[in-house]
């Protein structure tokens, strides 16, 4: 009954489940503590052994990099979906609202973590490139349709939104001035 | 011919001239070097003796405080003039463009310098209050005339404008995204 396949599958599913749990808890603790998040606490809260934690993430920075990559990839996917599912200006607005809710403590981590993992093939410093490219496609479509000002550069705009003051945010992390920016983008 | 008055007047005029020259050079060097500006260099460039420099400004922080106070007071005066000379929305736009051109290096200095001069009666920490109050009058008039969104708070808005990224500025110090903010303020 027990073929190699049936023996391997549950292991893989377990490994994936552990990885997902560690990543989810890692994201929570990163949002709460920033780059100094208590690393082994991630395993404890995820109810996963320390050995499993270290097998998936040799260092805290590997975990942080994986959390950032996941968030950036989700945002890239969201941009691709919005590109085909709604009007260009609505897509830009909805996507920038999502981007604006990236937890404050995630910001500025990419460069630091990317540096410490410079020898890693999955360097986090390049992790946000797909997200930036996907957002650029949204902006350029909206500009082609004359729904967004021509003088706006997508990557610069992300810098402006990311710089909105931390103190002026609602409980869900949205800046109370994101509406001013979105209104200001219109032609 | 030489009355006490004629003897005193040139001295006062000289003192004022020296003070103004030190303040102007101080503003230039502060914009260039930030809080670590070379203090005695101010006297050299202004062609004023070191003794005179130290008589007007006992420490570098006293000079920085005076430069900041002067800039904030100029902006307060400009707001008061705009309040009566143009439309509320135009006044808000013109004034925010001036505020946006405050040199990058001046930002964040108020708190630090204010702290070091806490025993000084002319504490710089309160120096920007008249400017904030004058801008609030502009915003509230524009809101009463329904030319600016109701959900904008004047002091918060200054925080948003001051946070516009340093890297996205033209040669005159204007943010290339101030237009997005100004457009976004409209009702």
What does this entry look like structurally?
The structure is a homodimer of 187-residue chains. With 187 residues, chain A is mainly alpha-helical. The first copy, chain A, has helices at residues 4-33, 39-46, 50-56, 60-85, 88-100, 109-116, 129-144, 154-162, 178-185. Chain A is elongated and about 55 Å long. The interface between A and B is medium-sized, with 22 and 22 residues.
Low-confidence stretches of chain A: none
Tell me the number of strands of chain A.
0
* Coarse shape of chain A: elongated
Mean pLDDT of chain A: 88
Largest interface: A-B, 22 and 22 residues
Class derived from helix and strand content of chain A: mainly alpha
**Count of alpha and pi helical runs of chain A:** 9
Helical content of chain A (DSSP H or I, runs of 4+): 55-70%
Q: Multimeric state of these chains? A: homodimer
Give a concise summary:
Chain A has helices at residues 4-33, 39-46, 50-56, 60-85, 88-100, 109-116, 129-144, 154-162, 178-185. The first copy, chain A, is mainly alpha-helical and 187 residues long.
Please render the helix and strand layout as text.
The structure is a homodimer of 187-residue chains.
Chain A: H1 4-33, H2 39-46, H3 50-56, H4 60-85, H5 88-100, H6 109-116, H7 129-144, H8 154-162, H9 178-185
Helix pairs in contact in A: 1-2, 1-4, 4-5, 4-6, 4-7, 5-7
């Amino acid at each position: 009954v027990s073929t190699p396949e049936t023996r391997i599958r549950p292991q893989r599913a377990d490994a994936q489940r552990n990885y997902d749990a560690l990543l989810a808890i890692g994201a929570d603790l990163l949002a709460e503590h920033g780059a100094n998040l208590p690393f082994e606490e991630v395993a404890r809260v995820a109810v996963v052994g320390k050995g499993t934690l270290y097998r998936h993430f040799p260092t805290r920075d590997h975990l942080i990099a994986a959390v950032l990559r996941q968030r950036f990839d989700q945002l890239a996917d969201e941009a691709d979906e919005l590109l085909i599912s709604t009007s260009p200006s609505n897509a830009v607005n909805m996507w920038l609202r999502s981007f604006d809710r990236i937890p404050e403590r995630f910001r500025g981590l990419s460069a630091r973590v990317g540096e410490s993992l410079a020898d890693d093939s999955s360097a986090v410093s390049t992790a946000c490139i797909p997200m930036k490219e996907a957002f650029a496609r949204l902006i350029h479509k909206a500009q082609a349709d004359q729904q967004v000002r021509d003088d706006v550069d997508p990557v610069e705009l992300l810098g402006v939104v990311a710089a909105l003051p931390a103190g002026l945010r609602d409980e869900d992390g949205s800046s109370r001035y994101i509406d001013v920016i979105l209104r200001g983008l219109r032609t």
